[in-house]
């Protein structure tokens, strides 16, 4: 078995993502080199897109069946707001100061979203009704697939080949 059972718990995987993304935001704040900031901004945006997609495709549809749909809807709205900022950061090529401001706002959105999920949504989902191990395995598989797609897109862009953006 490639992953231990505890490492495949969907909620634990998503919480780990939350911590890793928060660490990237803190790292961004400490950087001074604009090229490194630009690269890390791309990493943050990719990590968020992967994370949001995993929640939207694998967790939220099941969550809606067992808890108040309002909590899930809030998460979806927050994800949409984050995606708008990500588009501004990655596709609009903002100036350094504008990118810094967009990353700051994105960080605040993510912080609010994580707090809501971990304090309200995840405890309800931990009740045992959902098979969090199976969902966790599916999340890991989707994360790997998406990370590979982002890597391939980056390689094509590095050599000047146009690629369609993934939403």
Task: Explain the overall architecture.
This protein is mostly helical. The chain has one domain. It is built from five helices and no strands. The longest helix is centred in the first third of the chain and has 33 residues. It starts with 9 loop residues before the first helix and ends in a 9-residue tail after the last helix.
Class per helix and strand makeup: mainly alpha
The percent of residues in helical segments reads over 70%
Total beta strand runs: 0
Euclidean distance between termini CA atoms: 32 Å
- Largest sheet, strands/sense/barrel: none
Number of domains: 1
User: Rg to the nearest angstrom?
Assistant: 17 Å
Counted by DSSP, the helix tally is 5
Per DSSP, what share of the residues sits in E-state strands of 2 or more residues? under 5%
Low-confidence stretches: 1-5
Shape: globular
Instruction: Give the ordered list of helices and strands.
Output: HHHHH
> How confident overall, as mean pLDDT?
89
Defining key terms:
167 residues, 0% strand, single chain, disordered N terminus, mainly alpha
Topology:
Elements: H1 10-30, H2 34-66, H3 69-90, H4 96-125, H5 132-158
């Amino acid at each position: 078995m490639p992953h231990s059972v505890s490492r495949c718990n969907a909620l634990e995987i998503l919480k780990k993502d939350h911590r890793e993304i928060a660490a990237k935001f803190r790292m961004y704040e400490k950087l001074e080199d604009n090229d490194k900031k630009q690269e890390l901004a791309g990493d943050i945006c990719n990590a968020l897109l992967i994370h949001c997609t995993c929640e939207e495709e694998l967790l939220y549809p099941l969550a809606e069946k067992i808890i108040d749909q309002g909590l899930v809807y809030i998460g979806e709205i927050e994800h949409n707001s984050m995606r708008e900022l990500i588009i501004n950061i990655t596709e609009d090529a903002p100036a350094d100061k504008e990118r810094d401001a967009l990353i700051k706002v994105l960080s605040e959105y993510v912080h609010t979203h994580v707090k809501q999920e971990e304090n309200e949504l995840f405890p309800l989902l931990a009740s045992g009704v959902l098979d969090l191990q199976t969902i966790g395995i599916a999340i890991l598989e989707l994360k790997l697939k998406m990370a590979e797609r982002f890597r391939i897109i980056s390689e094509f862009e590095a050599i000047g080949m146009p690629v369609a953006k993934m939403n």
